[in-house]
Request: fold
Amino acid sequence: MAVPGETTCRAIGPVEPPTCGAGQVALPGETACHDVVADCGAAPWGAIPVDATTQYVDQSYAGGASDGSVAKPWTKIQAGVDAAASGAIVAVAAGTYAENVNATKAVRIWGRCPKLVAITSTSGAALSTSASGTELHTIAASGDVGVRVASSASITIDQVWLHGLAGAAVTADGAVTVRRSLVESACGLKLTGTPSKIDSTIVRGTCDPGLWLSGSSASTVSASVIEDASGVGILMTSTSLEVDGTVIRTIAADGSGFAAGIAAVPASGHGTVNVRRSLLRRNGAAGIWSKLVDLTVTDTRIADTTATGVRHDLFSGGIVGVTDNTVSPGTTTTVTIKGSLLERNWPVGVVMYGGPLDIEASVVRDTPVAPPNSAVGAGIGIECGVEGKAPQLTPARLTMKGSLVERNAYTAIGLFDGASGSIESSAIRDTRPSGVAPYERGYGVWLSFESNNPQAKVLRGSLAIRGSVLSHNRRGGVVTGGGDTTIESTTIRATEPVATGPGMGVYVGSWVGVHATLALRASLVDGNTQAGVYVDGADASILATLVRGTLATMDGGFGDALVARTDSTVGNATVSAAHSRFEGSARAGASAFGASVSLDATAFVCNAIQLDGESSDTMQAYGFDFVSRGTCACGKDAPPCQVLSSSLTPPAPLPATR
Reply:
């Protein structure tokens, strides 16, 4: 990806490894599949690091009088564990050991290699431990449950193949470290209580979440792959999670219709989740779904969230943040995205319900139109709380800097129901229409209110755009339906029409009970269609701005640089323009329909009609006030500015609500 100011593209997140068959692994960055342990070594115990205290186990030994020596090994792993001193190694030769091993002391169990050595259990865990410092290396486990760890215990699982299990691969109340291992065809890892660490491990094909992390402790997942789990790749109901350099992919919906790469929902209190240098791809309803946590996503790619088989009434998108004050009053979810790429996620790249959303040096692109009705979709969507819970609305705010939002459907950025936004040094371009009337949008930035949400009117909402470029969006570059909008040092150009509507540069309209204001300063509004700036029942201040090249529609209608319309439903329109220039419009430089327009040192250049005034729909008269001398010129011809009444009609307002 490349963000504004960069001249070359760069890769984000780890290289996605190939999908491997049973017993094979490929970690992030690897290009070929391989065994968990590539070399099993020489029989009978391979490369196990034996010493003088080692207890030896070989199922094939038939000499009797076993004593755990090389010459007379035990034939059961449990016998070796019982005979071993604390901290000693139990070396296990090739074979399938049908037993339930119980470690009550800190022994280190080593197999020759996972494809040759297995513990199988028909009931209960293949290995249970109540000792701190237990280790399990280069071995396989299958059957009922893989490993069970008591609350007083800790275990390191290294280069182990846990597979073909009816229950969990690991169920633990104690501390667990899993390294360089493979978990497949099991019901995931269920880790509670003390901290857990998962490193360089593959977890796939689980009947439950791949990792289920609960309790009150921190957990880390690094350089791993979580794939083909049911419902959730990593489910965090604990308080802290760190994910680094990990691939989470192809997570399918569970029986409830929910699916997410990561779902972070603390069982109590507030949580923290940090995702760095990772890849989440082709997951179900959400790449990351967070509720009542502080989520930070850095240098991560989230792509191709599909929503295949999920319930469409659930919150979906690349990243989903939810604040629900009916669950935890006063607790807010926060989402921070830095240096990350979100692409082709359905139906929203990022969606935030209440709370702050900060996006920096990131790209959000190619959000598709949303099924089943193909009516909505957005690159970024933010609103004040959970829809349908108006009394519980939480203020929501987007802060975006140095980012690119492109080729999304319906709207690039949507601020709904009282949400506010600040956009700085960013590019917003090529938003595509949904293609379905009457929802055929394609807006660049959209500040919208809903009439059925009275608290949104109290929150009011605001939008500030500075030092940015909005280009080649559809129907509206910036569209507001109420609230306060500031646009400064920004270019809005080449907004394109759609089949059912125009391609206006800036549209500012009031909503019932929510008056709208616009401050447009030091900006360029260029090459838009039907209207450059449309002030509809709102108040606008335009300073040191150039509005030029406003085009007519395909049927030759309209094409005004500035439109000000008083509306009987939402109120009067007033515009003050100072030290600005309106140039090259297909119809009018400025048209007022029952509106009041104040002009100060402002130029109208080569417009078909320089100034036009008409009555409103209720026959309210227009007014032009020339505070100081302006100019109305085209070439050498510079007659005094005159306001004509040419029986013009105003363009139809843009749809400002969803």
Summary: Residues 39-187 form a domain with the Pectate Lyase C-like fold (CATH 2.160.20.10).
